[in-house]
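Progress report, Aim 2. The chain analyzed during this reporting quarter is listed below.
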Amino acid sequence: MYFSGTDRYYLTRELEEIVNIAIQMEKPLLLTGEAGTGKTQLAFEIARSLRLKMEEARCKSTFRGEELCYVYDTVLRLNDSRFGSGESGRDVNNIWDYLRFGPIGRAFLAEDRRVLLLDEIDKTDSDTQDNLLDVLEDGSFIIREINHKVVAKKRPIIIITSNAKRELSDPFLRRCFCHHIPFPSPEEMAHIIRLHFPDITDEFLFQSIDVFYDLRAKNFEKLPATAELIDWIGAMKSSGCQSPSRDGKIPYVGTLLKRTRDIIKFRNMVARK
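Predicted structure tokens for the chain:
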């Protein structure tokens, strides 16, 4: 298996190398970088390019490492034991009927190799991250209720993303290959935009990029990122807009700036001109 990018994802040489060595050596790949730089999208494009199924966990602060592997539904089993399972086919004497597998569990149990995305792992606490260490490294976990060890039938391609809202522990980092995706230069951004809008004219493309980077230089609270630029260009093309800027006014500025204070700040800037 070798990933060389897709018609929708701009892949630098350095990123291509780290992705493929992680696949070859079956190591988790931790991607860091500003929101909107394509960390999450990379996992989907790997799956699409290699024709693999995806298992995805959008991490939350309330997650525990165990529930990414499995959940034992004790309430449902108790209810069935009291009132019967009806036509569900569940057997109250069979605990397997009450196990619900999370994305890690499904990826490990699958007969085919899958892409496993743990998105925004930094939202979880350090205990959750530590609980995942051995699971990801060993390719296995224990179902405690029956002391049963689940071993990955095919080790998934593991992509982990972080927006660096919390520091990850050194032991966690040691078990990963790591890559920081820097914010694209204007030249790289032009390549990215052409992947999404192959029929865009040079004039419209470079005017849009100039407006975009000018906005990023104005110290807004939430700087517009690549995803916002793509949405903005898509909105302009859908409406037949002929110019990304006229007299300092930007059409559909709410596709680029998302926080109220930033939008008000921009309006005041335009009003003062």
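Residues 13-65+105-180 form a domain with the Rossmann fold fold (CATH 3.40.50.300). The first strand starts at residue 29 and ends at 32. These observations will guide the mutagenesis work planned for the next reporting period.
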